[in-house]
Amino acid sequence: MKHLLGIEELSRDEIEMLLATAEEMHDVQSRPIKKLPALRGRTVVNLFFEDSTRTRSSFELAAKWLSADAINVSAKGSSVSKGESMRDTLMTLDAMGVDAIVMRHAGSGSVRQAAGWVRASMINAGDGMHEHPTQALLDAHAIRRHLRANELGDLEGKRVAITGDLLHSRVVRSNVLLLNLVGASVVLVAPPTLLPPGVENWDAEVSHDFDSVLPDVDVAMMLRVQRERMSGGFFPSEREYIAGYGLTAQRLAKLKPGACIAHPGPMNRGLEISSAAADASQSIILDQVSAGVAVRMSVLYHLLAGDAGDERRD
Amino acid sequence: MRMHHEPRAMFSADDMSWAMTRMTHEILERNHGSEGVILLGILTRGAPLAKRLAAIAERENQPLPVGQLDITMYRDDLRSNPTRRVGRTILPAPIDERTVVLVDDVLFSGRTVQAALHALADLGRPHAIQLVTLIDRGHRELPIQADIVGKSIPTAADESVRVRLQETDGEDLVTIERSAL
């Protein structure tokens, strides 16, 4: 693997390899010395044209725990705000000799385009409404750990509901692709105004009735509703949104035993997810955060540690 | 000088079993029993070997906690090869202030052991580290020696030593063959 552009480019074997390595990386977080030497001398740049807390800091930690040097460039405070083009910014960083560029950008497909311009490995940290592959990987990793901890088997045959603003979400596309690859089924729950175009061709069921879906899912994954969308005619009011699609304390009670609650963050507490649900014992939201570092370590390791080529057999 | 093209069997299942028993006794003698001693097998084949040593010690009522060590991330040739699957490091207990006995199948250049020493340094500070290897084939590239050896087999640099174990390969056998260069 040279780049990580999206889940759509990955085979099931590659996904399993990335997740298996993430399992081993997970242990490093609980060690007193959080350092592995695998990427000593490599350099990773976080290039974020959009704001981020979790993704950016977990990529930075992942690089540092693997002994790589990591720097952060954000659009604010860089030459991007002076009007430098995305291509020139990338070429500039590439000319410095960096090994990987982790990029988030509002343009769908921008990271794939960037991969054609630079020598470095490109990693997609979210491109517009297209994909966010490491988020889908960390979701699968966190759900899998929850299932194992509760002796509920593996992802195969499990049912995941993804609820919220699916129209503006890049997480949902990556998740539908990945969950199907590992044998889980997905039901998308949203008002008709917040469904992505072409959703009928996706490998997922669609429902507008959250209450009927809840009792038979293994995972209730809630996505953030951007408050600014409320004034955009997508939905009449916050109150109506909550009534139809919020994971309220009442709905929490409808989940079957062993089901878990996920949210990629940042949360709007009291809108798509109530505090009762966010802080419930079934919530794996903070586990998703720690899974994020493990999964990104795995991605950086497989992209940068070895010589380019196929997986070596022992 | 005889030329060997066929693999030569150097160490049968019986030889191996006998050597393992002797090595276990040497570990216990050297450490005055099993108190404070941890066995760590270096993946891949060091892990089942360490388990066997522990099982023999168990029969002597000398329980030795046994774990395994993955050194993939610590290899100095990581860059010259495609990435390998990372294995799992399992510590049966914290290694601080214990005596860690590293177990491997073949001691050759010493680079694997060097990587294992680096890995241990990131996991804690053992009181002492000892090295046990089933086969010592010579050709060291680093100042590293085993404390306890199953069998020393002189080899030519262009030969390779293959250790096969019941747990990983379905039989116990050590052979030497000409490397297909």
From TrEMBL, chain A:
Top-rank taxon: Bacteria
GO BP term, pick one: amino acid metabolic process
One CC-aspect GO term: cytosol
EC number: 2.1.3.2
GO MF annotation terms: amino acid binding; aspartate carbamoyltransferase activity
UniProt keyword Transmembrane helix present: no
Domain Aspartate/ornithine carbamoyltransferase carbamoyl-P binding: from-to ranges: 2-144
Domain Aspartate/ornithine carbamoyltransferase Asp/Orn-binding: 156-303
Keywords annotated in UniProt: Pyrimidine biosynthesis, Transferase
Summary of the function given for this chain in its UniProt record: Catalyzes the condensation of carbamoyl phosphate and aspartate to form carbamoyl aspartate and inorganic phosphate, the committed step in the de novo pyrimidine nucleotide biosynthesis pathway.
Annotated binding of carbamoyl phosphate, by residue: 54-55, 104, 132, 135, 265-266
Name of the protein in its database record: Aspartate carbamoyltransferase
Pathway: Pyrimidine metabolism; UMP biosynthesis via de novo pathway; (S)-dihydroorotate from bicarbonate: step 2/3
Originating species: Tessaracoccus flavescens
UniProt gene name: pyrB
Quaternary structure and partners: Heterododecamer (2C3:3R2) of six catalytic PyrB chains organized as two trimers (C3), and six regulatory PyrI chains organized as three dimers (R2).
Similarity comment: Belongs to the aspartate/ornithine carbamoyltransferase superfamily. ATCase family.
The reaction(s) this protein catalyses: carbamoyl phosphate + L-aspartate = N-carbamoyl-L-aspartate + phosphate + H(+)
Binding site for L-aspartate: 82, 170, 224
UniProtKB/TrEMBL annotation, chain B:
EC number of the protein: 2.4.2.9
Domain of life: Bacteria
SUPFAM superfamilies: PRTase-like (SSF53271)
GO terms of biological process kind: regulation of DNA-templated transcription
Molecular-function GO terms, alphabetical: uracil phosphoribosyltransferase activity
Reactions catalysed, as given in the entry: UMP + diphosphate = 5-phospho-alpha-D-ribose 1-diphosphate + uracil
Alphabetized UniProt keyword annotations: Glycosyltransferase, Transcription, Transcription regulation, Transferase
Record motif PRPP-binding, residues: 100-112
Domain Phosphoribosyltransferase: 23-159
Pfam family, one: Pribosyltran
Family classification: Belongs to the purine/pyrimidine phosphoribosyltransferase family. PyrR subfamily.
Known function: Also displays a weak uracil phosphoribosyltransferase activity which is not physiologically significant. Regulates the transcription of the pyrimidine nucleotide (pyr) operon in response to exogenous pyrimidines.
HAMAP family hit by this protein: PyrR
Name used for this protein in its record: Bifunctional protein PyrR
Origin species: Tessaracoccus flavescens
Organism lineage: Bacteria, Bacillati, Actinomycetota, Actinomycetes, Propionibacteriales
Gene: pyrR
